[in-house]
Amino acid sequence: TMNKPIILVLIWLLTFTGSGFAAQPYKAGFVTQNTKTGFLVLAPDRGFVGNEEINAVFKQFKKEYPSSLAFIGRSYNGMDSEYSNYIERAISELIQQGVSDIVAFPLFFSSSNPILNKVKRHLPIHKSAEKVRWANPMSQSYLMSQVLLDRVVEISNVPQQEKLVVLGMGAVDEKSEKTIRRELEKLIAYVKTQKPFQETQVEVYYNRGAALHKLKNKEVDEAVIHVAARKGNTLLVPFFIGPKFSNMMSMTHWLGQKFDDLNLVYNQKAIFPHPNVLTWMKKTANDFIPIKKDEVGIVIMPHGATQPYNDAVEKTIEPLRKMYKIEMAYGMGDSGTIQHAVSKLEQQGIKKIVFVRMYSLSRQFRDKTDYILGIKDHLPEGWEGSTPKKIRTSAVIKSFGGYEEDILTAEILMERIKEVSKKPSEETIVLLAHGAKEDQDDIAWRNTMKINIDWIKKQFKTPFKGIVALTLREDWQGKREVALKEIRKVIEKESRSGKVLVIANRLYGSGPYSELLKGLDYQINKKGFAPHPNLTRWLENGIEKAIGTKISVAPPLAEIKGEKFSQVSPTVLIDQ
User: Fold this and answer.
1) pTM of this prediction?
2) Alpha carbons 116 and 108: distance in angstroms, whole number
3) 142 and 190 Cβ atoms separated by less than 8 Å
């Protein structure tokens, strides 16, 4: 079978899975609040074994978050329903726990689920639930696409030769059918980045009792039969939160019997149980809870290189370790390294993380790392290279980067210039940076350097003969040759009528500058930016802006080598 085309059919039955309310949740962010937030977990009534699966996850969730659980069935219809008592009891449990801010937490998959929409409509009539805020349903989280990916990986052998068909259930009309289809397609899009299937498609079952359910469901059945009749293996995976009264009386078992006479390989696993369900619950809750100092962690991503480079970075960061729990993720956006750092913080009880791209410009690696962190759903169009994996985390994450875009860095440059300058009027300053691959990114880098140059010029009474911003573009041979020719030309020309001072405009050291500028008449300051207290201040300012409150326990003016921080106002940009 390894050499035959394999067709994957995943059944996504959403009749009983919850399909959550689509309202946007209130974002508590990282701002401190005085109220106690609790979670009213609303789950579909799945029967004994199914509800035991939900209870098992809820008990783990309740260990960390004030919460209560209410099962809801199809007959719920406001205060007159037998399920109203479960909601009333759950709300009372939250009040007894001292909760003053209730968040309705839908343990449902789709925003079109009719049970959940009835709960949303009627919940305000329950006492103490008039101002309940709503969290998003499961389908809104990329963590669910990872559940789907795992189920596919369990049965997939050669995706290039396989067809993936995802079947949803839970539609009651064309509108809900389109919603379920859109939600599933979004999850499949992530799966396709990791598994290049030959073909993917979505079919949607209707709920029993819906106006068109017989006709629509017959069409879906025929589609499954048609796929199974094709040459090669058909793999069938039920992926749902459906009824499960017992292991025999469950939707997965019934499906297995329904398609038993077809040429199918059947996988009985569904959404429950899966670790990402609890991870999703925690992550959703963390988006609402107020900040606590000991639940905030920091992941810092510098480029990383030789030990001297890394030591300079660590020395810059060291004062902040008195204030925050910090993990390092050296590199250029490696999913495994970032996952390791985030997981280490979570193991220490961290619920909110600030991710710092310790790179010159805020745009550097932002698209890639925000995608890996789950902050963004998609990479930009035209993305080159393999698609990185998103990390699995319950932490709420914010990110920022771009130390050269802060005037604090201009101050470091001014200091580096003063260390080698003697007669400004006879000196040409060359700020020499690494540079970028793409022309527009390199132009942006030079423009940022020019902003710093404008600030530096205002600080000197005697003007320099000249200050220029140049980039080497050193990692791309063709572009490096062009850039190096320009750099050497500038230095050679300016050195004929004065002195040229090259300032390493980079995080640490001077890289290949000395080797590449051999034979020219110039003086260089090789220090780079790190270590320097202003760089530490940039980190601290950005972290505190992301958190939304100052939680420092160290003195406000931390020191490195006896130097005090600058008092220049920060210009940190936080990614939303």
Assistant:
1) 0.86
2) 7
3) yes
